[in-house]
Amino acid sequence: MSMIIHFANMVFKPIINLGAAPMMMIVLTLIALCFKVKFSKALEGGIKLAIALTAIGSVIGVLTTQFQDALNAFVKSTGINLSVTDVGWAPLATITWGSPYTLYFLLVMVVVNIIMLVLNKTNTLDVDIFDIWHLAFVGLFCIFCGANLFVATLLVIFIGVLKIINSDLMHPTFADLLGTTAEENPMTTTHMNYMMNPVIMVFNKIFDVLFPWVDKYDFDAATLNKKIGFWGSKFAIGIYLGVFIGLLSHQTPKAIFTLAFTAAFCLELFSLIGSWFIAAVEPLSQGITNFANGKLKGRRLNVGLDWPFIAGRAEVWAAANVLAPIMLLEALVLPGNKILPLGGIIAMGVTPALLVVTRGKIIRMIIIGAVELPLFLWAGTLTAPFVTKTAKAVGAFPTGVAKSTLISHSTMEGPIEKMLAYLVGNASQGEIKFILYAALALVVYLLIFIWYAFQMKKRNKEYAEKAKENA
Predict the structure, then answer these.
(1) Average pLDDT over residues 6-31
(2) Key word Amino-acid biosynthesis present in the record (predicted)?
(3) 162: Cβ–Cβ under 8 A, 6 or more apart, which residues?
């Protein structure tokens, strides 16, 4: 296995040295060509990805540079030491893709997906190539915490198999949320944020048993978003954040306005630039789909896409808008948290899973989301040393951030998986305490997933019966 990594370093090191954006342009273009995507389309996707990476890095640089002095003053004036800078998801993707191990983990999961398809253990073809970085991050963090590549690979495969199974389990729910049937709509996702589903399902069942009356007060999210209007937008949330930090850090009125308007345009651009990443991988996704259809003729497959195909549901944004100030308040008082939500304050790593499990019950989404947010903040704090060290190693540390500053992401998908990586990595060092903790955590993780799968299969049976009645 070390020979594989050595070979990957030998081949990819010159490309990596070009920097994250040129590297990803070359990698994406070459992979698309392997799946017989037209050269112009393959290159177009690669260039779009490079532009998106460059843009998001520039926005992060503006945001962190503008807020750095205010945050230092904030720490002094409040005594709250939130010393980890939240750079959002895109820089972490760049950092993760800067490691040759990520390409190795991508190869591993492509093989796993193919094996599961051949053995008829899944009907999902995962074409969301870019977002493999979430799972690769788990493997890399496991290695950082002390595991060897073999152990990290086993952990990646374990979680990856569950992710693919989960995509099959969610498929009928996605179809229902989109107003279609499972037979009509092949879209599903293997995105890491949906691995929060089992935990959310536990809380959802508690609502079913103890608080079913809450649903009587539920409301239409689209109407809420319309009523809130600008005051619930990303612009407005950025302004609230800038004013809040400015006041607590005793900035001048001029500085407060600058912070507010800077945060407002940065949060809006985060969302806009995020859509560029999706557009960049579309040619590759189509190429993989065409390849699979040619090789697996006659078999109906689900297509594992990135999560935003469900982003049209108003509940996703309504819950995110309400959870943003809740997360900020939680970050200030949460024991063990060192990260102040900035780049990740629009909690898109949280709300899609809430939508699927609750099926759009907005009050449940907000309450359960508030309960689970500490997991994301703790995971962001836990992984900060790894993120910072890796960013510097691959030349992807954000400009404008002091070199002594730790960086991370406040709502990075897969917080539980990051904690598993920490336990497994430390257990690999032979310490009995961590071996016991890791074994217990893995067993509980698997058991909760099995229970969740049973609940989803019951739900899917109801969908199937309903479809028969309407046929």
Answers:
(1) 67
(2) no
(3) 195, 446, 449
pTM equals 0.76
Kindly state whether residue 47 falls inside one of the protein's structural domains: no
Which pLDDT does position 99 carry in this prediction? 79
Which neighbouring-strand residues pair with 302?
A: 124
Does 284 reside within a domain? no
User: CB within 8 A of 266, min separation 6: which ones?
Assistant: 59, 60, 62, 63, 238
Among 152, 157, 146, smallest CA distance to 427 is for 146
| Alpha-carbon gap, residue 152 to 132, rounded angstroms | 15
Class of residue 151 by CB neighbours under 10 A (exposed 0-12, middle 13-18, buried 19+) = middle
pLDDT at 265 over 90: no
The DSSP bridge partners found for residue 125 are 303
- Rounded Cα distance between 442 and 417, Å, is 10
In the sheet that holds 406-408, the strands lie side by side as 339-340, 84-86, 406-408
d(CA 266, CA 272): 10
Strand-by-strand arrangement of the 187-189 sheet: 124-126, 302-305, 187-189
Q: Of how many residues is the chain composed?
A: 471
Rounded to 10 deg, the angle between the 2-16 and 100-118 helix axes is 120
Per-residue model confidence as pLDDT tens digits over 57-84: 677 667 666 766 776 676 666 666 777 8
Q: Residues 6 or more apart from 301 whose CB is under 8 A from it?
A: 117, 123, 124, 125, 186, 292, 293
DSSP letter (8 states) at residue 220: -
Contact of 356 with 166, CB cutoff 8 Å: no
Instruction: Give domain status of residue 279, yes or no.
Output: no
Complete DSSP assignment for 244-271: HHHHHTT--HHHHHHHHHHHHHHHHHHH
For residue 365, give its domain range: 2-19+68-273+301-470
**Cβ pair 19, 395 in contact under 8 A:** yes
The DSSP result for 350-393, as a single string, is THHHHHHHHTS-HHHHHHHHHHHHHHHHHHHHHHHHHHHHHHHH
- Domain assignment present for 25: no
Using CB atoms within 10 A of its CB, is residue 1 exposed (0-12), middle (13-18) or buried (19+)?
exposed
Here the tokens at position 458 are 């019951």
